[in-house]
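Final report, closing paragraph on structural work. Over the funding period we assembled a curated collection of sequence-structure pairs, and we close with a single example.
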Amino acid sequence: MFLSDFDYDLPENLVAQQPLPNRTDSRLLHLTVDGLSHEQFPDLLNHLHAGDLLVLNDTQVVKARLHGEKDSGGLAEVLLERVVVLDANVADGSTFTSHHALCQVRVSKALQPGRFLHFAKQKVECVGREGEFYLLKFPQPVFEFLEKHGELPLPPYIDREAGSAITEFDEARYQTVFAHNPGAVAAPTAGLHFSPELLSAAEDLGVDVAYVTLHVGAGTFQPVRVNDVSEHQMHREYYEISQAAVSAIEQTKARGGRVVAVGTTVIRTLESAAKETGLVSAGGGETRLFIQPGFEFNVVDALVTNFHLPKSTLLMLVCAFAGFESMIAAYKVAVNEGYRFFSYGDAMFIER
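Its predicted structure, as stored:
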């Protein structure tokens, strides 16, 4: 398939710039093999059944954006891609630790190894490059440094006045109520619609809830740069699946229930872990799984998701899950009906 197959016209006014007053206020476009229906997000409870399993991503968005200067005096902006999690020996015999991270760096001239960036009198060293990302060494563990000196990184399509600080409202709402494990650069946005009350109501219906972790990286916003989408290479993202989550999935399948993924990050996590054997196994690692039409799903039966950018890998994923023609048609309906798009936008519930 070609990149142009995943394009659609989206009026700028449909890109949600602010969250609605309450998390569950969004609309819900319900897609089944029988067609579409227009609902509100709490109506999701009408489509969940006792014995189903909701799987949510408990990653926590960190203050991953930094503003500072180069040692030559020029301005620098840094956006975390991911902390280097696993130890790896380098040429000089030293070892990377949690002080190291791959980052996007915006500077007037490319950084060279050995040069420094300055943030509030703290120095961060450029160690090298990995593709489009710079490997930076921080003076303390990366997350501790970001908490002191960074800011929450809203997606590029959310327009805030240049130089304005991220508000407390954004800091609260661009985070799920079940965020637990720090490491994401972007929120798992399907989870933003859930309130504690809605999750409790689902459990009262006999729906089980399990959590996995996938730390969304800055690469999620990188455009696809090839026309033949089969040639696209996904960025790496770190994930973890507990034995408790694996057991919950196995029990759900055994009783005939459905595994309902809340977000594309959950699909990528579960299907990555099941890619070799068809069964989810506990553990962690990095995934570069690219899901496009033709992909065979082993684990997930239904999906809660937001509306995704034109020509994005996330749109390709939901097209693979629901069927290309059905999904493209649903997006046209959503545009015509004035649904709100992207991170702070409305949601879909897809039953295959």
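The chain has a mean pLDDT of 93. The longest helix spans residues 324-336. We thank the funder for supporting this effort.
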